Amino acid sequence: MTETRSVQSTVEVPTDPATAFTVFTEEVDCWWVQGPINFHDSTRALGKRIEPGVGGRVLEVYDAGTGDGLELGRITVWEPGARLAWASSVDDVAIEVRFEPTSGGTTVRVEATIPEEGVDRGSTSWVRMTPVWLADWMARRDHVPHRPLVPDRLAVAVHYEKPAAAARFLRDVFGLEPCGNVPDEEPDGPAWIEFRVGNASVMAFGLEDGVEPGPSSTHTPWVFVDDLDAHHGRVVDAGARIVQDIWHHGARAYAAADAEGNRWTFVQATPLMRQT
Length: 276
Description:
Layout: E1 5-13, H1 17-26, H2 28-31, E2 47-50, E3 57-61, E4 69-79, E5 83-88, E6 94-102, E7 105-114, H3 125-140, E8 154-160, H4 163-172, E9 177-178, E10 193-197, E11 200-206, E12 219-225, H5 228-237, E13 242-249, E14 251-257, E15 263-268, H6 271-274
Parallel strand pairs: 8-11, 12-15
Antiparallel strand pairs: 1-7, 2-3, 3-4, 4-5, 5-6, 6-7, 8-12, 9-10, 10-11, 13-14, 14-15
């Protein structure tokens, strides 16, 4: 039997609780980073939205005109400057966000509770990502336009025998900025550790993710294309070897080998990418 469990995180931001609450709710589309697996369906997602008041929706927006999309949750508590909570519509997780005044500003405390026998299909990502992404946005928001950061169409995946140790090296020695927490220990399962270089992504994966060791397989370009199915069809018709057929996990993508056997990953571009 699975018992009720919870995970939480905190971050201190240099502003008062009322402003922190406003930034969290009204500017979520700016601080929630767009990336291959940062949405339930990145092929359609334009951003996120939190509708005000009890009964409001937490949305992954797919339609720019209506603002509708995938409902991620329903607001259960709306106390501006103090507390925000919602019940997930995509799994069994309940999220609570508290805004607590400190001498230096506000501590934003995010807690996710998964009930007994409950399922988490991604809602606990609010706990993991808020300390990193909200703090980064608070540091930049007075100096940049208030619109979503659109990733570049070229990214690089680097495969390692020990991805966590390699990622710590990239962070501590090369100075790359992680998009989330870099694990202290090697993960039990597949790794996805992402860094941002300007608007481009560098992703650290393990060799166990289907890539054999070798000089031609450690670095994989990721190219975001307008129409993944058409691109896949053209590559197949040309006789190229498909290394991994189309898969969908947030991003929708496939991998193919080039003329010398090097692996390339092609990914469906997001709606905002296709506008640039």
